[in-house]
Amino acid sequence: MNESSNKIVLIVGLGMIGGSIARGLKKAVAHRKVVACDQNATALAKAMQDKIIDAAGSVEELCPQADIIILAVPALSICRIFPEIAALMKNDAVITDVASVKSHLFSADMGLAEEAMSRFVPAHPIAGSEQSGYAASVDDLFQDRNVIVTPHVGNSSEVVAVVNNLWRELGANVLGMSCYRHDEVLAATSHLPHLLAYAIVDVLLKQEQSEDIFRYAAGGFADFSRLASSDANMWSDIFVANSTAVEKVLDDYIQSLLQFKKAIHKRDRDFLKESFSHVKRVRDNFISTHYEPKSSTEMTSSLRSFNVKPGGHVTGSIRVAGDKSISHRSIILGSIANGISRVSGFLEGEDALNTVAAFREMGVTIVGPENGELTIYGVGKDGLQQPRKPLYMGNSGTAMRLLAGLLAAQPFASVLTGDKSLMERPMNRVAVPLREMGAVIETASSGRPPLKITGTALSGIRYQMPIASAQVKSCLLLAGLYASGDTEIIEPASCRDHTERMLQGFAYPILCDAEKGLCKLQGGHDLQACDIDVPADISSAAFFLVAAAITPGSDLTLKHVGVNPTRIGVINILLAMGADIERSNEKLVGGEPVADLRVRYRSLSGIKIDEDQIPLAIDEFPVLFVAAACARGETLLRGAAELRVKESDRLEAMEKGLIQLGIAVEAFDDGIRITGGQIGGGSIDSFGDHRIAMAFTVAALRARSNIHIANCANVATSFPNFVELAKSVGIQVSVAQT
Ligand code: S3P
Q1: Is residue 253 part of a domain?
Q2: Ligand 1 mean position, distance from CA 427 (Å)
Q3: How many domains is the chain partitioned into structurally?
Q4: How far apart are CA 472 and CA 489, in angstroms?
């Protein structure tokens, strides 16, 4: 039982949603005090009789004693009732609502003091049905359903947490959005369909012999018109409150209908068939992605492939997606900080979004991402809650390894899983040192996921890493935040230091000595929220750096790229091969150096790659191998066995692909020798590895004929708009969904 169960909850409006909240709260904690008011005395009496509420009365009677007040009334009624409630409620009470529209609450001048607004956190459960009234209420209405909260600038993270906990107690998944985004999304996904249902029944009603039509209307009509049985009072409020967003999407819908009408008039069967097939494909894919088990998602989406035409060059100025490593870390540290952290430039790729979902599952309210912006309402270092299901980390080794460190120290058990590729990756590199700290972690055979973690108290250790891995280092630092004493990590070679830099940004004391390759922190301090500007990912920029470096006539500028010295191996290696790369606009954003990079074509020569560059370019080798294939002479890489345990075995994937394209390649256990030559064409398998897929897309610029790359869906894990950006600079790539 958590402390919030002692709070008195007042529900204003005991219809289906209000009644279901009362039932759900009572089911979760029988002794919890729930009180209610409603104009409908019969509903109140019935609820008392059902022992669903402890008291019924007027707002004047019940409001002054309530700790949490839920306005479960129609959208426009909120604006009328809120001022009345605000005048009666306790200073520290928290107020929320359940309406399907949000922005009208801010545009309507309710004449409220800032203080009252600061205690109000709007929320909207995406639950319910065409039924209404207390009689339709059930105790599990919100179980596993999404609830969208739309906090505003006046809310503190503590107030937001109260509302989050309330919905969590009801079994819901709490998502966060800005109120404007919420209203746009709901206009399209809920309000428009309701309007259409009302309209279709209205149309049939006006037909002659409508009785007869209704009698024969089964199946499709019943499905389509179900929503027209919804509560008229509630829905008329919704359309008035959300008129702007609904009108906009309605205009689009009318256009679409007119287009279909025209096609029907012209008996244009081809147009209709093509439109219907396209829509069916999109819907089927959407359903399998969002509503079916992950394994089938993988099967469907892995069928995406790229077709790239040969030749061309790249020009222009672009900003690639946000840094993946920094995006993951911003969520992790923002979640366990005290206060509100705002992130911009966030990578909206699948990997980072899975991390967002994991922290939401642990009770953190995260608003966004919307256009790369995200607001994290930190719960403090000890505020995470036990996940109710295994945390799915998708394709991301970084997320799994970093979270393993954090979760090992929590006072609850958790399980980490991932997609097919992640379930094959080695986790002993974190499990072994974490166990040295006292962690209790079970892996599957040979140290593979899932990781079953029993949270426990940890002690700091001094750990000499056998491999230069930022993931291992970061995992141990996160565990060290909670451990007793010092955690000290020594790296055999310099590897990315984003965790150390970001901890400093969150005011956590940490000692770093780059010369000695060590970092050290003491457990037990707090993190203070801060704002983070995520630079463009140099690992994504790398594809375009190489694209410009290998194609005559290219002149490309990459804006605001993160050039942290622990990440610039790709620049160093390309420069050593003779590339023309110019830096400008160098500055520091939130402790991370960024610069614009201008790349022009210059012919490249093969080199022997220095081993100390390996950790600095660890993710960029697939595309560097493409550069090597276009260079004069031989390029040799040794000491890079790590590449065999990335999202795919990257030495093998690149060896196979390059040989397929006619390049001379010799692979070793720990490296590769590539002799530059003429790239041919043909079909390549990316083995579901995003970086292999993008590397071969770049290779086509210097190919003799088309390159077809299979298994490209995972490009969305790190670089969701890769194809659009690639096309915009001159790469002739198209996507096929087979
Ligand atoms: C990462 C570290 C690197 C890198 C990965 C991201 C990180 O892995 O390959 O894509 O964010 O810490 P290793 O540190 O295991 O080499």
Answers
A1: no
A2: 13
A3: 3
A4: 10
Residues 604 and 483 in one domain: no
Assess contact for 347 and 162: CB atoms under 8 A: no
What CATH number should be reported for the domain holding residue 380? 3.65.10.10
Cα 133 from Cα 231, distance rounded (Å) = 9
- Residue of 406, 489, 391, 404 whose CA lies nearest to 447: 404
Whether residue 470 has its Cβ less than 6 Å from ligand 1? yes
pLDDT at 3: 60
Say how far apart CA 146 and CA 98 lie, in whole Å.
12
595 and 650 in a single domain? The answer is: yes
Positions of the chain with pLDDT lower than 70, given as ranges: 1-4, 108, 110, 218, 292-302, 738
Model confidence over 104-127: pLDDT tens digits? 888 767 677 788 899 999 999 999
Report how far ligand 1's centroid is from the alpha carbon of 295 (Å): 25
For residue 294, the model assigns a pLDDT of 53
Range of the domain at 573: 305-321+536-737
Note if the bond before 369 is cis, omega within 30 degrees: yes
Closest CA to 597 of 519, 645, 516, 536: 536
Separation between Cα atoms, residue 548 and residue 294, nearest integer Å = 37
Q: Read off the CATH number of the domain in which 67 is found.
A: 3.40.50.720
Best substitution site from 469, 491, 564, 692 to test ligand 1's pocket, by max atoms within 8 Å of Cβ?
469
Return the pLDDT at 302.
Answer: 52
Ligand 1, residue 329: give the atom nearest the CA: 11
**Angstrom distance (rounded) from CA 547 to CA 555:** 10
What is the pTM assigned to this prediction?
A: 0.94
Final residue of a structural domain among 139, 157, 183: 183
Q: Among 722, 535, 735, 704, which residue's Cα sits nearest to residue 623?
A: 722
Atom of ligand 1 nearest to the CA of 646: 9
Residues 342 and 370 in one domain: yes
The backbone region for 371, taken as left when phi is positive above 0, alpha when psi lies in -120 to 50, beta otherwise, is: left
Q: What is the dihedral of CA 593, 487, 510, 532, to 10 degrees?
A: 50
* Residue whose CB lies within 8 A of the most ligand 1 atoms, among 325, 474, 499, for a mutation test: 325
Task: Confirm or reject: Cβ of 402 under 6 Å from ligand 1.
Answer: no
Ligand 1 within 6 A of CB of 495? yes
Task: Please indicate, yes or no, whether residues 382 and 453 belong to a single structural domain of this protein.
Answer: yes
**Are residues 513 and 552 part of one domain?**
no
